[in-house]
Amino acid sequence: MTSSIRHGATVLAAVALLGLPMVAQADNKHVSEAIEHAKGAVDHGKQGHADAAAKHAEEALKHAQAAGVKNPHLDEGVKELKEAVSHGKAGHADKATEHAEAAVMHLSEVK
Fold first, then answer.
1. Which domain holds residue 92?
2. CB neighbour burial string for 8-20, b if at least 16 within 10 angstroms, e if fewer
3. Are 46 and 82 in contact (CB under 8 A)?
4. CA distances (Å), origin 34, targets 59, 60, 73
5. Mean pLDDT, the chain, as a whole number?
6. Quick one: which of 65, 43, 55 has its CA closest to 88?
């Protein structure tokens, strides 16, 4: 067995023994990306750029939905992002901002 294969087998064995989910890191990356885009939606919304807020909220929504973790805060974050997208597309920068801020709050609580 080569060194890299042996190392990979050791890591897999350790993950299995510790009961660590192998997808946790990927999920956390999606949640982090969702938070960053939701913050972008907030920033643009505060500047009155409803269309840009909607685009960032849409991107945040894609990442939040891709996270694949069961968490009530993630569920609420998704709901808030959907509202942010809807209001942003309707030209309501203030409401899009409120919902994006709520999404950031919920997504930040996802563990």
1. 22-107
2. eeeeeeeeeeeee
3. no
4. 7, 4, 13
5. 84
6. 55
Helix (H) or strand (E) holding 27: helix 24-46
* C-alpha to C-alpha distance for 69 and 65, rounded to whole angstroms: 9
13-58 pLDDT per residue, tens: 444 444 444 444 446 899 999 999 999 999 999 999 999 999 999 9
Would you say residue 4 lies in a domain?
no
Q: Which two tokens stand for residue 33?
A: 């990306």
Structure tokens at 107: 């997504």
Dist CA 107 CA 81 (whole Å): 10
Domain assignment present for 93:
yes
Report if residue 56 sits inside a domain.
Answer: yes
Indicate whether 86 belongs to any domain: yes
- Domain count along the chain: 1
CATH number at residue 69: 1.20.120.660
- Which pTM was predicted? 0.77
